[in-house]
Amino acid sequence: MSEQKNFYWANLIHLGCNMWTETGNTRGREHRSNSNAFTELHFNRELWDRHMQELKDAGCNMLIIDVGEALLYESHPELAVKGSWTHEQMRKEVKKLQKMGFEVVPKLNFSACHDIWLKEYSWMLSTSIYYQVCKDVIDEVCQVFKPKYFHLGMDEETADHQRNFDHITVRQHDLWWHDFYYLLGCVEKNNARPWIWSDYMWNHPLEFLKKMPKEVLQSNWYYSGAFENLDERHQIYVNSFDILEKNGYDQVPTGSVFSDFSNFEKLTKYSAEHIAPERLLGMMQTTWERITHPYMPLHTAAATTIAAAKKWMESQGK
């Protein structure tokens, strides 16, 4: 189902950050700057602009923007925080980034583990109210971004991942798929290609391969620098790239500087060796931190690793 001509060197950027635990709740995540939900947008314009140029210079040509609470939804203004951007502000930024050469992809994470940005609606999963809100915000984001791709998240929806939350909500079995298909429909009606994290497959491989449509772009993720002599769990993570390839899914494998700076270049090499060029649409780097002063060294490292991986890929004639 591959259709893009250019190889994507992508970077995930967090404009919205309310995707982890509730406001004031830092249990079990004290080491994470993005652990709890904020009541205002954490955004530094000067640092953002500087980093966009840094990414461009590194060869990055795609930005996946975690939108969340960063947009002032006209259909649901109750989702806003102090500083949320209007449609016009967001549209202006998207056009600016496109002129810089970036493919701009919106991301709204609808995993029950990462939907704090939905506020009270995050407690109403699989209800008629929930479905309407999901449709409304997807439609609005598509109106603003007019995207080719739309990232729906959908990762880590397990009770264990929410063990420190004040409120735990998990969909499973047919209900997870029902809601997932509904979200796919909302995206496709806006003429965008759905994109998700692939980790549902780690625990449900046969079900995933049976029910996951090929048109859904896959981002399996792996953040370690080790690719040999792995324990059983890490081997499952790495093997998932090969399973997706064997079953004909388009992929944008995802690494991170969050835990290992060597990860991204190693993951790029692994992906180039194990995934057919026509199904390897690109590579994605992540930091999982917001664009504010304390975390800029990590963002700079992300740009540096993208440049290194791109240089290696080009040296191989790929």
Protein described:
The chain has 318 residues and is of the alpha/beta class. Helices cover 37% and strands 11% of the residues. It contains nine helices and eight strands. The protein has a five-stranded parallel beta sheet with strand order 3-2-1-8-7. The protein has a three-stranded parallel beta sheet with strand order 4-5-6. Helix 4 (173-188) links the parallel strand 4 and strand 5.
Main attributes of the structure:
single chain, alpha/beta, five-stranded parallel sheet, 8 strands
In terms of DSSP E residues, the strand content is 5-15%
Mean pLDDT: 94
Sketch the major β-sheet.
Answer: 5 strands, parallel
Radius of gyration: 18 Å
Distance, first to last CA: 20 Å
Helix content: 25-40%
For the largest beta sheet, what order do the strands appear in spatially? 3-2-1-8-7
List low-pLDDT spans.
none
Structural class: alpha/beta
* Tally of contiguous helical segments: 9
Strand/helix succession: EHEHEHEHEHHEHEHEH
- How does the overall form come out from the CA principal axes? globular
Number of strands: 8
